[in-house]
Design a protein that fits this description.
Blueprint: H1 10-16, E1 27-29, E2 36-38, E3 48-49, E4 52-53
Antiparallel strand pairs: 1-2, 3-4
């Protein structure tokens, strides 16, 4: 079984993990009620998704 002869330095490890940082979530605006929602997710306020009402809300 292959085992490293020497340990990697902290800078070398950091270079490998340079792309592991967290990224901001993709937000879009609901075309019906214009609240910000996550992409590809039903709007929590009005239940609207992909041009139709998926979840009936109590407000309407």
């Amino acid at each position: 079984m292959a085992v490293p002869k020497r340990r990697h330095s902290n800078s070398r490890t950091g270079k490998r993990r340079a792309h592991h940082a967290k990224k901001a979530k993709q937000l879009s605006f609901c075309p019906k009620c214009s609240t910000s929602t996550l992409q590809h997710v039903v709007c929590e306020k009005c239940g609207y998704y992909m041009g139709r009402v998926i979840v009936e809300s109590e407000e309407t």
